[in-house]
Amino acid sequence: MSTLLSDLDSSPPGPSKDGDLVDQILKEMNGPPVPPAMIPAQQSNTAVNSYSMATNPATAHVIGGAHPTPADFAAAMHTGGNNSPANLAASAPYQEPPSPAATIPQYRPPKKSYIQRFGDEFKMPLIVSIIVLVFSLPVLNFIFAHYLPSMVKSTGQLTTVGLVIKSLAAGGAFWILQRVIVPLLSL
User: Fold this and answer.
1) What is the C-alpha separation between 120 and 102, in angstroms, rounded?
2) Angle between helices 114-136 and 160-176 (to 10 degrees)
3) What is the pLDDT of residues 92-148, one digit of tens each?
4) I need a labelling partner for 143 at 20 to 30 A (CA). Which of 8, 19, 124, 149 fits?
5) CB of 128 within 8 A of CB of 174?
6) pLDDT band at residue 172, thresholds of 50, 70 and 90?
7) What is each CA distance from 52 to 35, 42, 100, in whole angstroms?
8) Residue 6 forms beta bridges with which residues?
């Protein structure tokens, strides 16, 4: 049975009782370990008792079931020779590298139908033609004249700077359709 440290606080003060308890604790610490079954339930610490140290010897250095010999270490260290990478490479036997075709499987995309190929081929030209149609509408020129009046001549036509701004807006619309809308539609 183990002695609790809380017994030190509950016993009446006196030099002989505390000294006896300390001697008993030291004797228990230096004595044989107490099996877990004899530890009372209030003292049992499940986190400590659930783990145990491995008693078998470490075998991380064992390769292929055999312990390395001093000759193995000497061969690995090339004793008596130069350990430069060139010497190590020269002493290694030449092995033919495997061919890339043998190691990497060839990817073959699935066959597409004529309709799928037609859609893939004409997707971008269709987007460009829709953007040109929308940006050619007179309503868009009216919106430019309303919000950017300096970009419109007195005849109602766009100035060169107005045409550049309109073409940049069309390019931005194409980029948004190509990088945002089309990938969302293909999910």
Assistant:
1) 32
2) 150
3) 566 666 666 666 677 787 888 888 888 888 888 888 999 999 999 989 888 888 998
4) 124
5) yes
6) very high
7) 13, 20, 49
8) none
User: Tokens 């030449």 appear where?
Assistant: 94
Phi, psi of 84 (to 5 degrees): -70, 155
Backbone Cα Rg of the chain:
43
DSSP string of 121-178, one letter each residue? HHHHHHHHHHHHHHHHSHHHHHHHHHH-GGGB-TTS-B-HHHHHHHHHHHHHHHHHII
pTM: 0.39
Structure tokens given for 112: 């597409």
Q: What is the pLDDT of residue 15?
A: 55
133, 164 Cβ separation under 8 angstroms: no
Per-residue pLDDT, 170: 94
Where in the chain are the domains?
6-40, 114-185
Assign 23 a pLDDT band (cuts: 50, 70, 90): confident
Distance separating alpha carbons of residues 134 and 160, to the nearest angstrom: 19
pLDDT for the residue 137: 92
Q: Token digits for 43?
A: 């003292």
DSSP 8-state code for residue 66: B
CA angle 87, 88, 94 (to 5 degrees): 105
How far apart are the C-alpha atoms of 161 and 152, rounded to whole Å?
9
